[in-house]
# Entry
Amino acid sequence: MTVNFATGEVTEEEAAAAGMDMVPLNLAALSEDELIAMLPTPVQCAGALQYARQVAARAPKALNELRTALTKRERELTIAVALGARDLLAEYPRLPMSERRDIARATDSRVQDAQEARDTAWLLLEYARDYDRAIGRDIDILRSLNANFRGEHR
# Structure
């Protein structure tokens, strides 16, 4: 794939071979009306800003629920590791507790399930944090667009 930087056209040489479908964007060939049609209207920007603010208002509650779920999963993992280490006491009576915990993490299905649940809860929390940050950035962009549109459409 090559790009003509003067016109913005993308030519598909290697893109087709790689299985990628590219959409050529030839900005130089677009009329002013076509370019304007690509931009959001002031009403669309205002609506998007209201929606983004509603989503952002729900974020603290959602993040708190996910943090609580992660704390619960971490507690369950700690308990599963302790139970797994305790169950290994009969099999390995002279082994230190730290090594029995390591063996339990590697062999006990309860510990592995608890670890998987904890990892999933952590990933969900991180995804929600990223989403919250993205909504914040979107709000900043939409505020800027709204401020610019107010000046242009008086």
